[in-house]
Amino acid sequence: MIRFRMYSIGIVCLATVLVLGPRACAIQSYHVGNSLTNDTMGNHIDGVLGIQSVAELGGHDLDIGYHIDSSQALHTIWADPNEVDLTFGDFGKFDEALPTNNWDYVTLQPHLSFGSTQGLDLIHLNNFIGLTESNPSYDGTNFFVLQTWPRASQWPYVDFWESESIDAPSTSTLMKRQYFDNLMPQVKASNPGTSVWMIPTGEVLYELHQQFNAGTLPDVNSNLDFFRPSGSGVDNGIHMSLTIGRYIAATTAYATMFREDVRGQEAPDIFLSEEPTLTPALVDAINETIWDVITRNPWTGLSDFNDDSAINGLDLTNWEAAYGTNDTGDSNGDGVSSGGDFLRWQQSYTGPPLLSADFDEDSLVNSSDLSIWENSFGVNGAADANFDGDSDGGDFLIWQQQLTDAAPPFASVTQVPEPAAWLLFVMSVAFASTRRVGRSQLKLRPTSQVGVLRDHFVS
User: Fold this and answer.
1) Domains of the chain in sequence order
2) 397, 442 in Cβ contact below 8 A?
């Protein structure tokens, strides 16, 4: 389902179409960056962009403008609006277009060039957002940081993508996961109440590289098939191939901006005219990967159920109200609000730490919670910290990891179990820790919602 401003857009569009015709209701997006943003727009044939063709297959009329300045970073683009290589549509350069139109979507692309750093990227992302919001008739825009990808000289792709990026203003702009994970919270904190998310193209390419390396990605002969070949007039290993690469970039941008499930969607003809061939099997694999990444990534906004530009406990409240009833808590595109959407929310949560082992809901995890676990062990689910329906050793492990006071772990134990019972307990803990790998560090929800969530969570 599409949230953001799309509900109000739909109501206004319905009235506008009746008066002015369907083109009057086109959704408007503007894109600022260099040639990698141009790749994201897809192939340009007969006045139509690839991303527009993808949107059309999804039932949307997308009216696009862009400002492309090749090889430039955000701070150099900002410094000289007149230095521009490509514009598209009737909107003009960014300094003319952003403050004079009500944009549904604006994308902004950081890039490593001309001394760009995390600090400069933050400043100039804020500048572009502020310029857009300076429109006297501004009524809300969904901003997206375009996450691009490392060039081939930095490969192996997977290793570079997973490598460290120091969280500091002086850190050079880096096309890797941790750089964007460091940048995004700062951009969002600088723009409270503004919808600022990320298009995770670099992460999609990372997953596709993983699949290629494992031999599970169909109809791809080399991971360089994603990129333009040598001798094409552009750097090999950074610019997208006209078929596979640009389809990945354009479809990722479309699916993120529109929150649209692209699984099962065909590739438009605009991406099928060149080599390497984009086969139906490969399109299916790409679309599955795109949607999986978008629904798991914390910076895409799919779990922002209340549209307040943050993924926090308030979204969990919305999910609880929608659970089993309607799709307003649906983040994974299956049409229902279910336990799967809760898991997506949990993965995307960016608020303060939440404590699932706070069984007495006093905002602490301490000896009193251990007492509740002791009394509930093997009896009921009152000390269920991992939402498997009972109170057992796995819940004790979570209590131990979330302990927030200085009391020793067994300070409140008043009766030592019999040896046989204690052995069973230790075995249950060991078993729980092996079968729940990855869940023993769950940080889940505001403590005021513990009871409600335990009652109806279904994994």
Assistant:
1) 6-296 (3.40.50.1110), 313-348 (no CATH), 367-456 (no CATH)
2) no
